[in-house]
Structure formats: C-alpha cells, structure tokens
Amino acid sequence: MSRIKKSQRTVARAYGGSRCAKCVRNRILRAFLTEEQKIVKRLKKAKAPLLLKKAKRAEKRKALKEKEQKEKLRKRDEENLARGRGGRGAKKIEEPKKPEKAEKPKKEKPKKEKELKKEKEPKKEKELPKEKEPKKKDE
C-alpha cells in the first residue's frame, strides 16, 4: 500500500470518498442541517393555519374591548346629561351671533415724493464691460 499514490488510497465512507476526518465531519453536518431545514419548513407550513386563527381571535377580542369601552362611555355621558352635568358629546348652547360690521375700504396714503420719483424713473440695468478687441496692425 505504501507504493500506491495517495489519491488512489480512497476509503469508502458513508458521506462520500473524503479522506480526512474534518471533511467527513463537515459533510455530516451539512447533511444534518439540510434535513433539519426540510423538517422545520414542514412544521412551519403545518402551523400557519393555527397562527392565523390565533391572530383572528386576538383581533376579535380587541374589537370587542373597544366596542365595550365606547358603550361604557356613551352610558356615562347619558347619565351625566340626565343629571345636568353635560358629557363629552354634549352640545354647547350657542349664543346668537352678532351681525358683522361691513368692512370699510382702506384709504390709500398719499405717496411721498421719493416713492413717486422711483416709480417714474425706469430701472437702469448694469452694463457689462465691453470686451476689448485686439488691435489690428496696419501693413
């Protein structure tokens, strides 16, 4: 056996023809994890309908609590109104509205002399400096 090359000395093992113990251990782990993954996937798929039912039940309970709380507040308000205390939704007695005064147009103030001059004079635009042309030489 010592004369045979190392590549020809493969040992038949359960997880392939790997030679080193580390490689075999890695392959075993990989195989275990893939199987585990398949099992977990099946379990999640089976639990999905149960989770939906639980979520619906929780929603119904929450809706019932809110409804009961609103009913409780409504009854309390009715009792308070009956006693003359007023409730959350009690209508306030409105005072009669006073007729509104007609708005007078505002008088324009006479413009000052400076403002009049500014309006008459057109705005001067800033002139850009002209580009200098190169001088032509006479021949």
From TrEMBL:
The keyword Thylakoid does not apply. One of its GO terms (molecular function) is structural constituent of ribosome. Residues 57-139 are annotated as: Disordered. The keyword Ribosomal protein applies. Pfam families: Ribosomal_L34e. Keywords: Ribonucleoprotein, Ribosomal protein. It comes from the Eukaryota. Gene3D superfamilies: 6.20.340.10. GO terms for biological process: translation. GO terms for cellular component: ribonucleoprotein complex; ribosome. Residues 65-82, 91-139 have a biased composition (Basic and acidic residues). Belongs to the eukaryotic ribosomal protein eL34 family. This is 60S ribosomal protein L34. It comes from Streblomastix strix.
